[in-house]
Design a protein that fits this description.
The protein has 4 helices and no strands.
Length: about 130
Amino acid sequence: MRALGLRADEADQARLRNEARAASVEAGLRRRDELAAEQHDDVDDDAIEGIRAQLQGRLDRYRRRLDVLQGAERGEVPMSPEYEAALRVRRAVLDAQREELLHRRDVGRLPDEGLRRLERELDHEEGRLPARR
């Protein structure tokens, strides 16, 4: 595409990102399987199983998103109603978490330093969400 002077549109870029996300999770799952085959204790077994479930959930989401993107019109970045609802709920939950942290700080149950650290965590989580349209 570069040689021809063409640029990928938003939908193409979204597809590439989701393909890369899925590939990276698949690599993580392969590594998790290697770890599971090694000798370790019950604590490690629990951690390895927890990671498998988490990664599999991500992979399923990325594959569903790719299915939606594959059917998109040229240049369009579609969002399914389920995806939009999940984003709305996620943002509402983050807002409630922030409100609770501020309340705890205001009543003296959370020092400013703790508030800042926890707000950064929430900011990072929110930053992973797509920009609002």
